[in-house]
UniProtKB/TrEMBL annotation:
Protein name per UniProt: 3-oxoacyl-[acyl-carrier protein] reductase
Signal peptide: none
InterPro entries named among the record's database cross-references: NAD(P)-bd_dom_sf (IPR036291), SDR (IPR050259), SDR_fam (IPR002347)
Organism: Saccharothrix longispora
Keywords: Oxidoreductase
Enzyme Commission identifier(s): 1.1.1.100
Coiled coil region boundaries: none
Family to which the UniProt record says this protein belongs: Belongs to the short-chain dehydrogenases/reductases (SDR) family.
Amino acid sequence: MDLGLDGKVAMVACASSGLGLGVATALAAEGADVSICARDADRLAEAHGKLAATGGGRVRSQVVDVADTGAVRRWVDDTAAEFGGIDIAVGHTGGVVQGPVDDFGPDDYREAIDTALIPHVALVTAAAPHLGRGGWGRVLLITSEAVRQPMPHNVLSGVARQGVLSYARNLVHSFADSGVTVNVLAPGYHDTPALRGPSGEDAAAAAAEVPLRKVGDPDDFGALVAFLASRQAAFVTGALLLVDGGNTRGVV
């Protein structure tokens, strides 16, 4: 299936490994020009090489801490200047401190919001003037299954990422006339560096909780994001898509 992404310009935050790299790889394989960022220069260079090896579109990488709003704006501006525009913005952030609600006070919640919500807002705000050229654009924000199911060990993530969902729902109407769709993905356990323990015990324990008895593959997650970025997904906007192997127990 031709997803219509050849020559589109995509930005993927926090893409030196894990889900971000899976997304960037899928978009590059579809022929998109991909701009990635991360904090670690060495890991970013390695990811750049992997993307270039796909033989897809052009690749650029930039060391950026997505918690730095000014750095995010510079990344957006530099990408638009080099690639001639922006069509797809994929927001992604690092994790937040885990623990139950009794462990945290106001400052902890404020830091979680700065870590897991504000970077999405910074990326979309900076990219907005570039999105919608030719009546087309995609905003895809990666959160966590915690937006649908309270997780007692991960309360800060749930609170901060709920803000991402509310922000996205409001963006749907703001972007509607420009042909830009906005969707949120809520991944559960995936085989990423954040999940793996020294001997893989963390991934094994996570898999035991999931009805499918396995954790997700970042490349499969990337393929799903690529479809949501495609021309075939033009009527999908305002959606929250769980990608968690059935781990979320809620009915609605």
